[in-house]
Amino acid sequence: MDFHIDDTTRELSTLVRTMGEQLVTDDSLRELDARFGPGTEADGGADHATARFHSRYWDELVRAGVPAALAPESLGGAGLGVVGEALVLRELGRVLAPVPLSPAIRATVLLEAAGLSARAGAVAEGREIAAVGDGDAPEVDWAPIADVIVQATPDGIRVSDRTSVSVERTVPVDFSCAGLVSGAEAEPTTVPGAVLEVDALRRRVHLAAYQWGVIEAALERTAAYASTRHQFGRPIGSFQAVAARLADGSIDVDAVRLSTLRAAYELDACSGEPGAPAHAAVASAHFWACDAGHRLAHTAVHVHGGVGLDRSEPAHRYFLAAKAGEFRLGGATRQLIDLGAVLAEQGDPWEYSA
Asked: Comparing C-alpha atoms, which of 239, 241, 237 is closest to residue 224?
């Protein structure tokens, strides 16, 4: 297994980070919250004008060719694999970027597998915004602003134009863009079962990677605050209890980083036929993202004190994002159940003979 991160992936993730730090500022997110957050007139809408969507950053990502670079090589992508996707999504998580990159990546793969290459190309090039959902779950992230909605079903994928379905906006815990989709009547297009299985695992790796970025940045901000906030004549970060909690947070971030990259590597290595190693690695990454996300979310708020409870402050925004990631991932206990099922059925998936 090759653990080397190639130069193209490094350069792309660095570009995404640079643009994110320049465009997705605390002030820009505060403005989005003021315009499209809870209690505003836009709350409950279902289009670009009434969704918490950083359109400027998304436009720059598209202009820089980021979604296209992450597309399959058959559509002109750079062939960066799930590892490349994870490293880029981590950068989005660091700045809490509300942009639909993950569904763009997933929809491109699913649409191409269904023989809809023209539409897959439109999504990869950013000419259309995609939302991807589970056919059994009515809530779909990014549905309110999507041009095309792709829903996985046991028989394949159902592809619907946004104008052909009804979307009622929902309000997740982090006030991200999501909606209840109803009225999809298109017949499912057949897609190989292995493609759908990989997509389900890819989604979980994407969520874990975004969570990695969220808690990594939250810890950095919290440590910086602890080094400048003085109490009793000294920085609060110099107190043993605070320092120990931040040190524990650093270990948690490393655990999420390592487990997420391992899951991405296993998914790339399975050649489209995920077995026990891929399923176990994804469940492990999921567990750490949930468990560490919960701890880091509360650490950030606790160390910031009253500032952490102010909804307009970055610390609370990271708290909400980390908790939303935990909930979207299904909770730590569910991941341990999934991992236990793999171990019970097939034994240790990483037990290699000498």
From this structure: 237
- Inter-residue long-range contacts of 68-71, CB under 8 Å, 24+ positions, other chains counted: 68/124, 68/125, 68/126, 69/8, 69/12, 70/101, 70/104, 70/105, 71/105, 71/108, 71/120, 71/124
CA distance 290 to 211: 8
Instruction: State yes or no: pLDDT of 319 exceeds 90.
Output: yes
Q: Output DSSP code: residue 190.
A: P
Does the pLDDT value for residue 311 go beyond 90? no
The pTM score is 0.94
Amino acid at 50: T
Write 348-351 long-range contacts (CB < 8 A, 24+): 349/275, 349/276, 349/277, 349/279, 349/280, 349/281, 350/277, 350/280
**Farthest CA pair distance, the chain:** 68
**Is a pLDDT exceeding 50 seen at residue 191?**
yes
Q: Rounded CA gap, 206 and 196, in Å?
A: 15
Structure token digits, residue 185: 């009547």
Q: Model confidence over 97-138: pLDDT tens digits?
A: 999 999 999 999 999 999 999 999 999 999 999 999 987 788
Integer Cα distance of 320 and 309 in angstroms = 11
CA nearest neighbour of 87 among 253, 267, 250, 208? 208
For residue 140, the cross-strand partners are 179
Band (43; pLDDT cuts 50, 70, 90) = very low
- Asked if residue 263 lies in contact with residue 329, where contact means CB atoms within 8 angstroms, the answer is no
Q: Which domains does the chain have, with CATH numbers?
A: 7-182 (1.10.540.10), 193-346 (1.20.140.10)
* DSSP-assigned states of every residue in 195-257: HHHHHHHHHHHHHHHHHHHHHHHHHHHHHHHHHH-EETTEEGGGSHHHHHHHHHHHHHHHHHH
Q: Are the C-beta atoms of 37 and 175 separated by less than 8 Å?
A: yes
